[in-house]
Design goal:
The protein is of the alpha/beta class. Among the domains are: 106 residues, Flavocytochrome C3, Chain A, domain 1 (Alpha-Beta Complex); 90 residues, Methane Monooxygenase Hydroxylase, Chain G, domain 1. Helix 11 packs parallel to helix 13. The longest helix has 22 residues. The model has no long low-confidence stretch (mean pLDDT 94). The structure holds flavin-adenine dinucleotide (FAD) and succinic acid. Succinic acid (SIN) binds next to loops.
């Protein structure tokens, strides 16, 4: 099958859905998404969206907090644009039907919405707009509802993109060319139900495939977060940047039956205290901001505490707060913890750090454009310059909202000003004989091997020796995938294994390159920050071979 539309959107989290809605009045839109429409990191976001909407808060303060967290690597123009766009994007979400918590006592500058604002680490004001402790779900459901009703949007669920289709228009085969001459025409996509592979073409292609938490053995992310967009874009010749900056969230639930469950930073924002297994508070030994220090500092402090004491977890304790307050403020966390036998109104919650957010990604400009013509990237898959070396809490949903808006405006303008060729004659996917492999077990072992080696050797604290070992092992797994498994009939598991392995390799290469410690990248060999040499992005690009 060949599908043609004006806009092809790969991914259906906040970034993809908002972009789709914004361009849908200007052309036909196809959304492909690898599970159901709502399944995304977005749907699990708890804390909220950072925005200056209180009269007592200022843009300058949000900008300063973002830079402080980013540890010298944020792009000032990007930070200012995103922070100043936030109130408008929040207003838009309210109009799209998102029901944020209100507090009549709060006077907000945003059309007097009286939004309830909470606090998270690294913020010097209460500025987190939220919908209880399920903010992402509220946003995702409102957008899904609108998308399902739009007549110009076609949705293909359970369809997984394998690779982008790129062409150079003016060079002959065998030549290595620079990327501004490369055009993206669409993607090869597998229908997970039939395993058939189809060609999806469009005039504009939006990569909104989210993060890569599944590269690590322990993560707050759901199963979809396998870094597919970063891997596909890199293979196609797009520039990627800053992949060494993997954010580990300090507080994921530690329980044998809990899979990927986050305990929101808002718990610390509302007074939750971190204690070790002996019941002693320890954050004051690591930062004057204590529990409300930035995430990189808190995650490293917990890691150090666990190693020092040999414990399995530390504890997050908010039981000193009023019971009704806890139940009303954190209804989802309360219920979830209780289902594991932990009553957070009386007991401390066992927590550990886990991979949470990818600050690096596909490099874009302020409109979400990549260095490949017609290819945009927005949301967690992109590296815009907002987060620098460490993302400030609740700036991610905000970034996705602002960039979906900017990219839509740019893509609509491009459509109007150029006569686009939808797609030249594109070859169908070559499935190389498509013999079923009996190596399903080996694929699953390789998944496990990649995720464990990334956790053990490329985690919160890194060393040259461990990075070198990780590099050797991941090279072997990449060779196995490329030279052996890829010759058989491919499966969704294999597609994702290829992507987590490639993203793991890119993380290792970026981490090995940076000979200092900054933000989320901490190396015991180079424990100091070195502005003179390293106050710059780490940029990687694979040559495009036509
Ligand atoms: P996602 O929402 O992850 O969407 C990606 C989409 O792409 C999915 O639909 C996926 O199925 C699809 N996809 C991926 N690969 C393919 C492929 N090959 N083919 C087809 N489809 C594909 N941020 C905040 O700002 N505030 C918070 O409070 C907050 N809390 C969080 C809590 C948790 C537990 C987690 C995991 C993250 C949290 N974050 C938070 C981060 C934030 O949720 C994400 O960064 C953001 O939602 C990413 O949005 P996105 O649209 O870029 O990607
Ligand atoms: C959280 O609720 O702690 C997550 C916030 C974020 O990732 O920005």
């Amino acid at each position: 099958m060949k599908n043609e539309s004006d806009f092809l959107v790969i991914g259906s989290g906040v970034a993809g859905l908002l972009f789709a809605l914004k361009v849908a009045d200007h052309g036909t839109v196809t959304i492909i998404t690898k599970r159901n429409l709502a399944e995304s990191n977005t749907a699990y976001a708890q804390g909220g969206i950072a925005a200056v909407v209180a009269e007592t808060d200022t843009f300058e303060s949000h900008i300063a907090d973002t830079h402080a967290s980013g540890d010298g690597l944020c792009n000032p123009q990007v930070v200012e644009t995103v922070v100043k766009s936030a109130p408008e994007r929040i207003q838009e979400l309210v109009e799209l039907g998102v029901r944020f918590n209100r507090n009549r006592e709060n006077t907000s500058g945003t059309a007097d919405l009286h939004l309830d604002l909470c606090r998270e680490g690294g913020h010097s004001h209460n500025r987190i707009v939220h919908a209880d402790d399920l903010t992402g779900l509220a946003v995702e459901e409102a957008l899904v509802d609108q998308v399902r009703r739009h007549k110009n949007i076609a949705v293909f669920e359970n369809h997984i993109a394998i690779d982008l289709i790129t062409r150079s228009t003016n060079l002959q085969r065998g030549m290595t060319i620079t990327n501004h001459e490369v055009y993206c025409y669409g993607a090869y996509v597998m229908d997970r139900n039939t395993t058939d592979i189809h060609t999806f073409c469009a005039k504009t292609i939006m990569l909104a495939t989210g993060g890569a938490g599944k590269v690590y053995a322990y993560t707050s992310n759901p199963d979809i977060a396998t870094g597919d967009g970063i891997a596909m874009a890199y293979r196609a010749g797009a520039t990627v940047a800053n992949l060494e900056f993997v954010q580990f969230h300090p507080t994921c639930l530690f329980h044998p039956e809990a899979k990927n469950f986050l305990i929101s930073e808002a718990v610390r924002g509302d007074g939750g205290l971190l204690v070790n297994a002996a019941g002693e508070r320890f954050m004051e030994n690591y930062s004057p901001l204590k529990e409300l220090a930035c995430r990189d500092v808190v995650a490293r402090a917990i890691d150090a505490e666990l190693k020092k004491r040999g414990d399995d977890s530390v504890f997050l304790d908010i039981s000193h707060k009023d019971t009704d307050f806890i139940k009303t403020r954190f209804p989802n966390l309360y219920a979830k913890c209780l289902s594991f036998g932990i009553d957070m109104t009386t007991d401390p919650i066992p927590v550990v750090p886990a991979a949470h957010y990818m600050c690096g990604g596909v490099a874009t400009d302020i409109c979400g454009r990549t260095n490949i013509q017609r290819l945009f990237a927005v949301g967690e898959t992109a590296c815009t310059g907002l987060h620098g070396a460490n993302r400030l809490a609740s700036n991610s949903l905000l970034e996705a909202l602002v960039y979906a808006h900017n990219a839509a405006a740019q893509a609509i303008e491009d459509m109007q000003s150029f006569a686009f060729e939808v797609s030249p004659e594109l070859p169908s996917w070559d499935d190389l004989g498509a013999i079923d492999s009996d190596e399903v077990i080996m694929v699953s072992h390789s998944w496990d091997a990649v995720r464990r080696l990334m956790w053990n050797y490329v985690g919160i604290v890194r060393s040259d020796k461990r990075l070198a070992r990780a590099r050797r092992r991941i090279d072997m797994i990449q060779d196995e995938i490329n030279e052996y498994y890829w010759d058989f009939k491919i499966t969704p598991d294999l597609i994702e294994l290829r992507n987590i392995t490639m993203v793991g390799d890119l993380i290792i290469r970026c981490a090995t390159h940076r000979k200092e410690s900054r933000g989320l990248h901490y190396s015991i060999a180079y424990p100091e920050k070195n502005d003179a040499r390293w106050k710059k992005d780490t940029v990687l690009r694979r040559p495009f071979i036509h």
